[in-house]
Amino acid sequence: MLRKRSRMVRASLALTAAAVLAGVLGGNCTGLTVTGIPLPGGGTIDINTVTVELVNMTAYPVEPRLFVDPEDDSWDVDDGANRVFLDAPIRPGELVRLTFTCARAGAIETDHAVMLIPFHEDEESDNDPIVRRHDDFNCGDVVSFIFIDEPGEDFYTRVEVNGRFVKD
After folding, report:
1. Given CA atoms 114, 162, 69, 102 in this order, what sign does their dihedral have?
2. What is the residue-wise DSSP string for 11-60?
3. What is the pLDDT along the chain (168 residues), one digit of tens a residue?
């Protein structure tokens, strides 16, 4: 009987500690990153992170000029302090995935990505799309910046969230 009671006390303490932790962190739990929750049928979901995909659908390497601002209402997303540098430009057909905590990803922008054309002047994207947490995406989402240069069209950046078109 004593052994059962001590197990119940430990379980109660663990549940109390979890409730206190959730209360201290607040309702959005931005200080806690929960990753790798298994999904039925395979795969995992990361609920307190945002995945950013950079997809190069052009024939040339692309420098995405990616900026990530913790504030979702900032108009100065492309401030130098928010710049995310990649090791190398994104090769044609390449997909690069980056993961940010929700606390870090309030607004995400590609500021006129640059298509690097050998022996020719580099070409800037016609647009500089910005997406904002709670308006365009939420924690756990996949935000895709797709760099497109179709024959006869201008070079531009399309944004999708979880595979759904958001903006060009």
Report:
1. negative
2. HHHHHHHHHHHHHHH-TT-TT-----EEPTTS-EE-TTEEEEEEEE-SSS
3. 445 455 555 555 544 444 444 444 444 444 444 445 555 566 555 579 999 999 999 999 999 999 999 998 888 788 888 999 999 999 999 999 999 999 999 999 999 999 999 999 999 999 999 999 999 999 999 999 999 998 888 999 999 999 999 998
CATH code given to domain 37-167: 2.60.40
Give the containing element (helix H, strand E) for 9. helix 2-25
Rg (CA), the chain: 21
Residues 43/49/50/53 CA torsion (nearest 10 deg): -50
Q: What single-letter amino acid sits at 88?
A: A
Residue carrying the six token digits 């009671």: 5
CA-closest candidate to residue 77, choices 102, 109, 55: 109
With CA atoms as reference, report the closest residue to 56 among 108, 99, 97, 107: 97
